[in-house]
Specification:
- With 603 residues, this protein is of the alpha+beta class.
- 28% of the residues lie in helices and 20% in strands.
- It has 17 helices and 25 strands.
- The chain has a five-stranded mixed beta sheet with strand order 20-19-21-16-22. A four-stranded mixed beta sheet has the order 2-13-12-11.
- A hairpin with a 6-residue loop joins β4 and β5 (102-105).
Length: 603
């Protein structure tokens, strides 16, 4: 395989050079931005949101519900702790979370690409080492890309398929040649984790296992017990301590994860002092249930962390692979039946704003009213595929806040009737063949809030004549069933960045209708959606990029694939007073690279 790729790469490079010989040659750079130039100069001393003088030492302890049965986070099989990916392993380049999408050299000292971004070349740092002291080599990089692209999680396959080839161009350099127009792909390749090839010799990559991993990251796995805990210790010989990118980061001597039976137990463990940091998702609980002794004494601090990232989508997802949810009018009926205002008042004292689209709370979100300008132009080529509201404008239904939700229930019944479902004499919603409208809502154990939302929703559906069953299962069963798309409706959450790109194919790409393990839980297969993603990836200007995302947002929102709930424009973190974080916050707020990366411990 590698020999074939090298040959293809050579052919592609010769072709590219022949066609662009008149262009100015590219030059190696310390960083790259999706649009324009990276904000930080070469040789920068630290990232803008760290404390460069943060003292090393101390421990931070997190709590999690559920369990784990694998230490391989790169495949579909098994349940591996998420922390392995960021603490043990590293990519070629690292992200500055105070910019929408800019990368700076980490394992790679430089990146080079042409103006069209038809190829990209990385040069490894000579001092880069794995935790066992062996150097990070081009062979490790090439093997990592190939094994992840062919045997890894589906999230890695899209990028792999877009490579015409890869070849070693120097003792520490590797070049990737693209076979499609995708201006984001050089950045995506820079974020691929690099694994030590020798660490996997004699083992099947696609099988989950409890083998202690070797990576190049700042921590090593010091101890673990399946389903009980993991302990990460800072590697005193970490090769990257001297980099400006790492100054003020990785300050804790130990990062520990304790596992508990469910979310309620995790909170009680936090109150008892067994864990030292806890993220609270419920605003009413944050206001009303944080008066325990440690808060009153000041030993626990409540911190609000604002952010500027999109809302993402969170709520109940329809599996349109199921015949019952194929018709958008059925989905629209159930969205009307979901009494958001009443549920929000009941559970959150009405404090949480609703998610209005997949990219709401940002400049990327669709605008109210009819589609205009470039957005209208992009959508108008797919008129036959568009759902009601895509061009003329769409807003989620609003209720009067009362439990009966009369106006929206009437609209729901109208939509059901349009789709061939009416309430029979026995009070049950049935189709022309007399078959009852019946489905299952699948939940995972450990979230009292999700169950409370579901119970209110299901009671409303029963009054509507819908036969709904709520099934709560453990995390292992939940992962297995959602991986295989074996559900009717499930609780769903997808975060969005300020620079969406290739991951959108994993979320909504038609390949995920059949391929297990993607994030396309709704079973979406839409040429229009894929065209908008292609437009995003090919955009040369920020304006064209924003238009493509807004068009995509309209397609997803008016497709009515998810019943959205609420979001927050800030994170709520309760933590021991000894845990500190910088005053300067990144635009992404409490996001990847914030806690525990830039926090520290101080008595």
């Amino acid at each position: 395989m590698l020999q074939t790729l090298r040959y293809l790469a050579a052919v592609s490079i010769i072709t590219a050079v022949a066609g662009t010989a008149h262009c100015v040659a590219a030059a190696p750079a310390h960083g790259i931005a999706m649009y324009g130039e990276p904000a930080l100069p070469s040789g920068f001393s630290e990232l803008p949101y760290v404390n460069p003088d943060a003292p090393p030492g101390g421990r931070i302890t997190f709590g999690a519900s559920g369990s784990f049965d694998s230490l391989n986070p790169w495949i579909v099989k098994g349940r591996a702790p998420w922390a392995l990916r960021s603490l043990i392993y590293e990519p070629l380049m690292g992200r500055n979370w105070d910019e929408p999408f800019s990368l700076y050299g980490l394992l790679a000292e430089s990146i080079e690409t042409d103006e069209a971004r038809s190829w990209v070349e990385f040069t490894l740092r000579p001092e880069a080492r794995f935790s066992d002291g062996t150097p990070v080599t081009v062979e490790d990089v090439m093997w990592s890309f190939e094994i992840l692209g062919t045997e890894g999680h589906p999230r890695y396959r899209t990028a792999w398929k877009k490579l015409a080839g890869m070849e070693q161009t120097g003792p520490r350099s590797i070049r990737f040649t693209l076979n499609t127009v995708d201006r984001e792909l050089p950045l995506i390749l820079g974020l691929r984790p690099i694994l030590r090839k020798a660490d996997w010799e004699g083992r099947e990559f696609g099988e989950s296992a409890m083998h202690v991993p070797i990576g190049s990251g700042p921590y090593i796995l010091d101890g673990f017990e399946a389903g009980r805990y993991l302990s990460f210790k800072r590697n005193p010989e970490y090769w990257g301590n001297h980099l400006g990118f790492n100054r003020g980061r990785h300050n804790f001597e130990e990062i520990r994860h304790e596992y508990f039976g469910d979310g309620g137990v995790v909170f009680e463990a936090f109150k008892a002092g067994e864990i030292s940091s806890y993220r609270e998702w419920n605003s009413a609980k944050w206001e009303n249930q944080y008066d325990f002794p440690a808060v009153r004494s000041g030993d626990v601090v409540k911190s609000l962390i604002p952010h500027q990232r999109p809302s993402g989508i969170r709520g109940f997802v329809f599996n349109t692979r199921r015949q019952i949810f194929e018709d958008w009018r059925v989905r629209d009926a159930l969205i009307h039946a979901f009494n958001f205002e009443f549920i929000n008042n009941t559970l959150n004292d009405g404090l949480q704003p609703r998610i209005t689209s997949y990219f709401s709370n940002s400049e990327l979100g669709m605008r109210e009213g009819p589609a205009e300008g470039r957005v209208h132009e992009l959508l108008s080529g797919f008129v036959d595929e568009l759902h009601e509201g895509a061009l003329e404008g769409y807003r989620l239904p609003q209720s009067d806040g009362s439990e009966r939700n009369r106006g929206n229930i009437r609209k729901a019944l109208e939509r059901f009737e349009e789709a061939g479902w009416t309430v029979a004499d026995d009070g049950v919603l049935r189709n022309a063949d007399g078959i009852a409208f019946s489905f299952e809502i699948l939940l995972v154990q450990g979230s009292a809030e999700t169950l409370a939302i579901t119970n209110i929703f299901s009671e409303a559906l029963k009054r509507l004549g819908v036969d709904v069953h709520v099934t709560v299962i453990d995390s292992a069963q939940y992962k297995e069933r959602t991986t295989e798309y074996d559900f009717d409706m499930a609780w769903y959450r997808r975060a969005m960045s300020l620079s969406p790109g290739n991951e959108q194919k994993l979320y909504w790409g038609s390949e995920g209708v059949e391929l297990p393990g993607t994030r396309n839980w709704m079973g979406l297969a839409s040429p229009a959606v894929e065209s908008m993603i292609d437009e995003m990836l090919a955009a040369r200007s920020k304006e064209d990029f924003i238009a493509a995302v807004r068009a995509l947002d309209r397609l997803l929102t008016t497709g009515r694939y998810v019943i959205p709930v609420w979001y927050s424009d800030h994170s709520r973190i309760a933590h021991r007073k000894e845990l500190k974080f910088p005053d300067k916050l990144p635009i992404y707020g409490d996001w990847i690279g914030f806690q525990p990366d830039v926090w520290w411990y101080a008595e």
